[in-house]
């Protein structure tokens, strides 16, 4: 996986500082919320919490930490350690101090820890509720962390300037991924793929037989001449690279190599692939290769077992066992049992495509994602390895199409544990019909 994919386009900002300097108040201010996350009792300790934030149209994840002190004991020590981890895994740190108090010994002690993180640090001088206190904030240059930004988290003073500086200091956003943007209006792009003779042309003809089926490309949409616009389930779909199928030329002239290039091109051009399998025959290696092309390209997937009219009781039993064995890695792909010949279940295609695309584009709010990940990893922690168990600190969704997640952890996770998290993620949020990527960003 490339670095860009691992990092994802949403940067992470950690809010760190001594207890009671106003970190939670500041987080609430940034999130623009009235109701406070702030605990009633002062100094009450919390675990890190991550939220989605936006400023000037730019998204970032903001992580609130419980408070840092150099030689904290017991529960406070655990909280301080978590704050340090947040510093090590974030893209930027807001170090919050009190303008009313100035730099304390604790703040001086925090400086090496902040530098160790190697991330940009903005000094936020909070509780600068009036101009006199604002002026006072300049004494905080003494920390050696650059310009202090006076703000009043409580009243909103100065937070706009501070957030502008925050955006300037954030790493450049990763270039948007091909499908990571709002979808342009127009028909959704579908690849109809499968090895020769599974029934692709027959299915296309069946779909094209419904009234007003093959829509004219005049409607202002730019459609490649090799694509077909077909109405399925009351909606127009763009079936990519189907010219060969319609003219029934591809398979006669093409070598397998050529056919495979063509399949992979169609998958890349599509948002969702319908992989046709011949239900009357065993699942072959060529079927598997096509399925891998779809998952590796990160496209949504619908499995269509065609020629269901040829499937009898015995074959059905065999097929169920083949599916368990051969399609174990894609239990999330919806399966249709259809017949291009008789038309059986062809009407199920459109809902299946819509569902798969919805999963492909699904975004889980960061708050919800973190509530879930915290509950999961508390209920089932990572097994201990050499006296230590890596912990998942928080999670963000780095992108969609397909959904991509990043887990921020204290160390590398076992492959089995990562699979467990992925499985639970699907149990909780679904994603039927879409691949999902889960990457780990471990503290160095
Ligand atoms: P945290 O422990 O660092 O998260 O601090 P909190 O956000 O819980 O705030 C601690 C106390 O400081 C609360 O009573 C807040 O109301 C108060 N506080 C936070 N920001 C400001 C501010 O800008 N001005 C003033 N006067 N009080 C603030
Ligand atoms: P393609 O190479 O994937 O485009 O496959 P075709 O559409 O050319 O179909 C290959 C053969 O399977 C043809 O003889 C079709 O008539 C037959 N076929 C396609 N769909 C079905 C089906 O649902 N049931 C049955 N019994 N035969 C089918």
TrEMBL record:
Binding site for GTP 1: 17-24, 64-68, 126-129
GO biological process terms, semicolon-separated: ribosome biogenesis
UniProt-recorded Gene Ontology molecular function terms: GTP binding; ribosome binding
Positions contributing to GTP 2 binding: 194-201, 241-245, 306-309
Keywords: GTP-binding, Nucleotide-binding, Repeat, Ribosome biogenesis
Assembly mode: Associates with the 50S ribosomal subunit.
Reported function: GTPase that plays an essential role in the late steps of ribosome biogenesis.
NCBIfam families in the cross-refs: GTPase_EngA, PRK03003.1, small_GTP
HAMAP family xref list: GTPase_Der
Similarity annotation: Belongs to the TRAFAC class TrmE-Era-EngA-EngB-Septin-like GTPase superfamily. EngA (Der) GTPase family.
UniProt protein name: GTPase Der
């Amino acid at each position: 996986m490339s670095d860009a994919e691992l990092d994802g386009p949403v940067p992470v900002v950690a809010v760190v500082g001594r207890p009671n300097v106003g970190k939670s108040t500041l987080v609430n201010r940034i999130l623009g919320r009235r109701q406070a996350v702030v605990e009633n009792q002062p100094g009450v300790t919390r675990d890190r919490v991550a939220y989605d934030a936006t400023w000037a149209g730019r998204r970032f994840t903001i992580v609130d930490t419980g408070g840092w002190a150099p030689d904290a004991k017991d529960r406070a020590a655990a909280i301080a350690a978590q704050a340090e981890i947040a510093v090590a895994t974030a893209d930027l740190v807001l170090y919050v101090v009190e303008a009313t108090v100035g730099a304390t010994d604790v703040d001086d002690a925090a400086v090496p820890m902040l530098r160790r993180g190697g991330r940009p640090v903005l000094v936020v001088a909070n509780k600068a509720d009036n101009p006199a206190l604002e002026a006072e904030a300049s004494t905080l240059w003494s920390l050696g962390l650059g310009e202090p930004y006076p703000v009043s988290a409580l009243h909103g003073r100065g937070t706009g300037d501070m957030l502008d500086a925050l955006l300037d200091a954030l790493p450049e956003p990763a270039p948007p991924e091909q499908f990571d943007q709002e979808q342009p209006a127009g028909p959704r792009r579908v690849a109809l793929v499968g090895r020769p003779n599974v029934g692709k042309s027959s299915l296309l003809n069946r779909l094209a037989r419904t009234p007003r089926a093959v829509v004219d490309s005049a409607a202002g949409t730019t459609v490649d001449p090799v694509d077909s616009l077909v109405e399925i389930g009351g909606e127009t779909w763009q079936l990519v690279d189907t010219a060969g199928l319609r003219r029934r030329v591809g398979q006669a002239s093409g070598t397998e190599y050529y056919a495979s290039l063509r399949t992979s091109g169609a998958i890349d051009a599509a948002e969702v692939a319908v992989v046709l399998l011949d239900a009357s025959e065993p699942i072959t290696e060529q079927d598997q290769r096509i399925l891998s092309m779809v998952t590796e390209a990160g496209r949504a997937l619908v499995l269509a077992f065609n020629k269901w009219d040829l499937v009898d009781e015995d074959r059905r039993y065999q097929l169920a066992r083949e599916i368990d064995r051969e399609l174990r890695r894609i239990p999330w792909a919806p399966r249709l049992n259809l017949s291009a010949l008789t038309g059986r279940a062809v009407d199920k295609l459109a809902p299946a495509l819509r569902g798969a695309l919805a999963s492909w584009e699904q975004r889980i709010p960061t708050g919800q994602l973190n509530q879930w990940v915290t509950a999961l990893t508390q209920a089932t922690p990572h097994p201990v390895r050499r006296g230590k168990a890596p912990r998942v600190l928080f999670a963000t969704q780095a992108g969609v199409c397909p959904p991509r997640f990043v887990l921020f952890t204290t160390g590398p996770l076992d492959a089995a544990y990562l699979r467990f998290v992925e499985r639970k993620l699907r149990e909780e949020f679904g994603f039927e019909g879409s691949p999902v990527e889960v990457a780990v960003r471990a503290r160095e």
